[in-house]
Design a protein that fits this description.
By secondary structure, this protein is α/β, with parallel strands linked by helices. It folds into 3 domains: 5-68; 76-86 and 347-452, Alpha-Beta Complex (Aspartate Aminotransferase, domain 1); 94-341, Type I PLP-dependent aspartate aminotransferase-like (Major domain) (Aspartate Aminotransferase, domain 2, 3-Layer(aba) Sandwich). Helices cover 40% and strands 15% of the residues. It has 19 helices and 15 strands. The strands form 4 sheets. It has a 7-stranded mixed β-sheet, sandwiched between helices. It has a 4-stranded antiparallel β-sheet with strand order 11-12-15-14. Helix 2 crosses helix 3 and helix 5 (94-104) runs antiparallel to helix 13 (319-331). The radius of gyration is 28 Å and the shape is globular. 40% of the residues are buried.
C-alpha cells in the first residue's frame, strides 16, 4: 500500500470544518451534508484517487442538489405537439394558476354552503358554468375522462350489455382499451357493425332486453378513410328513445374547438349536448386547455344517477382541480378571452408565419458562432393527445447542425430540460409551443450544446 494516493484523502472531520460546509448545513442539515461528504470520499477511494478537498466538496454539493431536484419538473416543449401527453398536456392559464394558488394557500368552501352554513357539495362549484356553456341540464366533474366513461357504464349497464361500434373500440394511452374498461365497469360489450361501416340498423338488430347503454366513442389516435360510414348521433338518440335505452357519447379527446380560429364561434360548440344525447363525456385539459378532468353533462335525471353511484367518490376531483377548471370555464364564456388567456388556444391559433417570426427573432439570442449552425425551416405541428388524428398544423422552428442524438441528449439534460425531436437525422425545435419568455433560455441551452460538441 506504500504510495497509495488514497492515504492523502482528507478526513470527514476536516471537510466538515470548511466554511461553505457550515453554510450547507443551514440548508440541508449537518447529517445530510456529512452523508454527502462521506459518499464523495468513498467514491474517490473506490477510484483509487486523492482529489483536492475542493473537488470532493464539489462532488458532495452535486449529491445534495441532485437529491433536491424534484422528479416532476418544468420542461420546455420544442416538439411542436401542443397537447403532449408525456409532457403534461395543457399548460394552465394565468387565471387557472392564480386560482390554484389562492385556494391552496388556505382553507376553502370546497364542501361548505356559505348561505346555510351547512355541508355543501364539491360538485356544485363548476356545475353552473358547465351548464351555461354547453346548454346541458346538469353536469358533474370527475378526475379524468376514462373515469367518466367507467362511471357512466357502471351506472347504466352494470350486469347488462353496452353496444359499441367495432370501428370505435379504441385503445387510449397506456394500453387502456374500451373493451377492458367496459368489462371492469361490470358490463358486457356487444360489438356492432364492422370496423369500417356501422349502420343504425346494426344497432337496432343488436338491442335486446339486456341492453343497458348505447355508447358512441370518438376515434382518438386514428382515422379510418375510404369505404366508411357510421351511425349519427341523431339516429342513435332516436333509436334509444324508441327502445328506452340511454345513449352516451364519449367525446374524450376530440379536436379542441380552437384548432382553427374560425371554429371559435361561440362557447364550446364542439361539446354542446348534441342531438339530445343523455350523457356526454369529455376531457377538461384536451378540450378546454384547463386541468386534467373528466367532464360529464347531459340530462338531469341521468346525471343525478351518477351522483348517487358509490364509484363517484373514487373518481372525485380535489379543490385545486376545481379551482383551475372554474377559472378556465370563466375564460370560455367569451371566445376572444379564451384566445387571449388560454395557452393552448393561443398556440393552436398561431399562424405558421407568426411562429416563423418568433423562431427567427430568437436567433438573436444565440452566440454568433452557434447562429451559423441553426436554420429556421418549415415544420408540421400536431394537436396531440389523440385529438385531430392525422391532421397537422403548418409551423416553423430551428434545425440545428451537429450530431442529432448528442444535441438531443444535452438539451434534455439541461437545468430546464429542452425537449425537441430528432427527425431525418437532424435535431429540430418547433417554436409553436415555446413561449416568448422561454426563447432566450432555449438559445442559451442550444448554444451550450453546440459548444460542447
Amino acid at each position: 500500500m506504500t504510495g497509495d494516493p488514497r492515504r492523502r484523502l482528507p478526513s470527514l472531520d476536516s471537510l466538515l470544518e470548511h466554511r461553505e460546509v457550515n453554510e450547507w448545513s443551514a440548508t440541508w442539515g449537518r447529517r445530510r451534508v456529512a452523508d454527502a461528504l462521506r459518499l464523495a470520499v468513498s467514491e474517490a477511494r473506490n477510484r483509487r484517487e486523492a482529489p483536492e478537498a475542493d473537488v470532493i466538496l464539489g462532488c458532495a454539493l452535486k449529491v445534495l442538489t441532485d437529491a433536491d431536484q424534484p422528479g416532476l419538473r418544468r420542461v420546455i416543449n420544442g416538439t411542436g405537439v401542443v397537447l403532449h401527453t408525456n409532457l403534461g398536456r395543457a399548460p394552465l392559464s394565468p387565471d387557472g394558476i392564480r386560482a390554484i394558488t389562492d385556494v391552496a394557500a388556505g382553507y376553502s368552501n370546497l364542501e361548505f354552503d356559505m348561505e346555510s352554513g351547512t355541508r355543501g357539495d364539491r360538485y356544485d362549484h363548476c356545475r353552473g358554468l358547465l351548464c351555461e356553456l354547453t346548454g346541458a341540464q346538469d353536469a358533474i366533474v370527475v378526475n379524468n375522462n376514462a373515469a367518466a366513461v367507467v362511471l357512466c357504464v357502471n351506472e347504466f349497464a352494470s350486469g347488462r350489455d353496452v353496444l359499441v361500434s367495432r370501428g370505435e373500440l379504441i385503445e387510449i394511452g397506456g394500453s387502456f382499451r374500451i373493451p377492458e374498461m367496459i368489462e371492469r365497469a361490470g358490463a358486457r360489450l356487444v360489438e356492432v357493425g364492422t370496423t369500417n361501416r356501422t349502420r343504425i340498423d346494426d344497432y337496432r338488430q343488436a338491442i335486446g332486453n339486456s341492453t343497458g347503454l348505447i355508447l358512441k366513442v370518438h376515434p382518438a389516435n386514428y382515422r379510418i378513410e375510404g369505404f366508411v360510414s357510421s351511425a349519427g348521433l341523431d339516429d342513435l338518440v332516436k333509436l334509444g328513445s324508441e327502445q328506452d335505452v340511454p345513449v352516451a357519447w364519449d367525446l374524450g379527446s376530440a379536436a379542441p374547438v380552437a384548432v382553427l380560429p374560425e371554429r371559435l364561434q361561440g362557447p364550446l360548440p364542439a361539446v354542446g349536448t348534441a342531438a339530445g344525447v343523455d350523457l356526454v363525456m369529455w376531457s377538461g385539459d384536451k378540450l378546454l386547455g384547463g386541468p386534467q378532468a373528466g367532464i360529464i353533462h347531459g340530462h338531469s335525471g341521468a346525471v343525478d344517477r351518477l351522483r348517487s353511484n358509490p364509484l363517484l367518490r373514487t373518481y372525485r376531483v380535489d379543490k385545486l382541480t376545481l379551482a383551475s377548471l372554474e377559472a378556465t370555464l370563466q375564460a370560455w364564456r367569451d371566445p376572444e378571452t379564451a384566445r387571449a388567456r388560454i395557452p393552448i388556444v393561443r398556440m393552436l391559433a398561431m399562424s405558421a408565419d407568426q411562429v416563423r417570426e418568433r423562431a427567427t427573432a430568437a436567433l438573436e439570442h444565440l452566440p454568433l458562432a452557434a447562429r451559423m449552425q441553426v436554420h429556421v425551416e418549415s415544420m408540421d405541428s400536431l394537436v396531440g393527445a389523440g385529438s385531430a388524428p392525422g391532421e397537422t398544423i403548418a409551423s416553423a422552428g430551428w434545425v440545428v447542425d451537429g450530431t442529432a442524438a448528442l444535441l438531443d441528449a444535452f438539451c434534455r439534460a439541461a437545468d430546464s430540460p429542452l425537449i425537441g425531436r430528432v427527425r431525418e437525422g437532424r435535431f429540430r425545435l418547433d417554436f409553436r409551443c415555446i413561449g416568448d419568455g422561454e426563447t432566450s433560455e432555449v438559445a442559451r441551452i442550444v448554444g451550450e450544446a453546440l459548444s460542447d460538441q
